[in-house]
Amino acid sequence: MQTGADAERRRTFVIAALVLFLCGAAFLIDALSELGEGIHAMTELVTVALLWGGAAITVAGYFRTLRRNAAVERQLDAVRGAFQAVLDRHFDEWSLTPSERDVALLSIKGLSIPQIAALRNTREGTIKAQNAAVYRKAGVSGRAELLSLFIEEIASGLSPGDSRA
User: Fold this and answer.
1) 94-155 sits in which CATH class?
2) Name one GO biological process term (predicted).
3) Are 14 and 34 in contact (CB under 8 A)?
4) Alpha-carbon distance 54 to 60, whole Å?
């Protein structure tokens, strides 16, 4: 997925490459007009060839980087999907209520109890009680252990349908 900033960077790069090409073309025309002058003209022709060669290598590298970034984005999307599937599976296994699911997810995302309470428009004591229920149902002692449970499962390469040993 291409963002506005990505599109702007791509547009800027294409414009810069075009300007570089046009400068090289002007340089080439100048060199061709001086062909009869010997070594100076030959030096300009070699310089133009090197300039265009460097530009071609740069453009190829840029597009290779764009392809690599797109592949990494696809992998990240797959991991996000796998992580969400693992979350959903465990939340179902633990029979979390919808409120407990929301609180658990916000907690896993790193929000503090006051932040979660403000987002959910409830008291901090309610969030603490819901967190305690999540930790009890999950068999963990706190947020770090809850998060590590999911990270370990994703890192171990288990697919969302596999059961834990």
Assistant:
1) mainly alpha
2) regulation of DNA-templated transcription
3) no
4) 10
Q: What is the mean pLDDT of residues 62-79?
A: 83
**Rounded distance between C-alpha atoms, residue 48 and residue 27, angstroms:** 7
What's the 3-state SS for the chain? CCCHHHHHHHHHHHHHHHHHHHHHHHHHHHHHHCHHHCHHHHHHHHHHHHHHHHHHHHHHHHHHHHHHHHHHHHHHHHHHHHHHHHHHHHHHHCCCCHHHHHHHHHHHCCCCHHHHHHHHCCCHHHHHHHHHHHHHHHCCCCHHHHHHHHHHHHHCCCCCCCCCC
pTM: 0.52
Token pair, residue 80, equals 């996000």
Where are the chain's structural domains? 4-74, 94-155
pLDDT, residue 130, reads 96
Residue type, 14: V
Each residue's pLDDT tens digit, 129-147:
999 999 999 999 999 999 8
Answer yes or no: are the C-beta atoms of 140 and 151 closer than 8 Å. no
